[in-house]
Amino acid sequence: MTRDEGLELRMRRVFPVPREAVFRALTDPEELARWWGPDGFSIPGAESDLRPGGGYRIVMRPPQGEPFDVVGEFLEVVPPERLSYTFRWEDPDPEDRETVVTLSLRDLGGTAAELLLTQTGFATERRRALHDEGWTQSLDKLENLIS
Which site among 9, 118, 134, 142 is 20 to 30 Å from 127 CA-CA? Predict the structure, then answer.
């Protein structure tokens, strides 16, 4: 029996800093709180146990409304090259299901890093598009922060 992998999201970004700096921004809760989330969102809390089998929680506050949490488990942690984890909303939308995010970093000569992001398992195109927008805005903020 195989699991239905659903719809997939793929993105590529190049950051003008060594991949160690990008990996730290992707994994350190304090750094993550500075750039995570769509425009207008704040991150009042982030915590993680960065190891395979360890968990994480990110509290997201929209511009209007109550905070909500993203939680998951780390599947693969290979600093500074690769990070993979499950992603699920607490109190999910009926169209949501757990997805898997994989972030791969390639060194581009020590002064730049390429980030490849893949998120798999979306149940609907609408939810995939929502994450596309969220990741695009988040990675724009990360690029502005570390450039």
Answer: 142
pLDDT of residue 93: 79
Residue with tokens 């488990």: 73
H/E element, 146 = helix 125-146
CA distance 130 to 110: 33
CA–CA distance from 139 to each of 54, 90, 91, 147 (Å)? 24, 23, 25, 12
Q: Please count the other Cβ atoms lying within 10 Å of the Cβ belonging to residue 115.
A: 21
Residue-level pLDDT at 95: 85
Mean pLDDT per 10-residue segment, the chain (147 residues): 69 97 97 96 97 98 94 98 96 87 96 97 95 97 93
Integer Cα distance of 82 and 70 in angstroms: 20
- Burial label for 142, CB within 10 Å (0-12, 13-18, 19+), is buried
Closest CA to 81 of 53, 110, 107: 107
C-beta separation of 112 from 14 below 8 A: yes
Cα distance between residue 118 and residue 144, in whole Å: 21
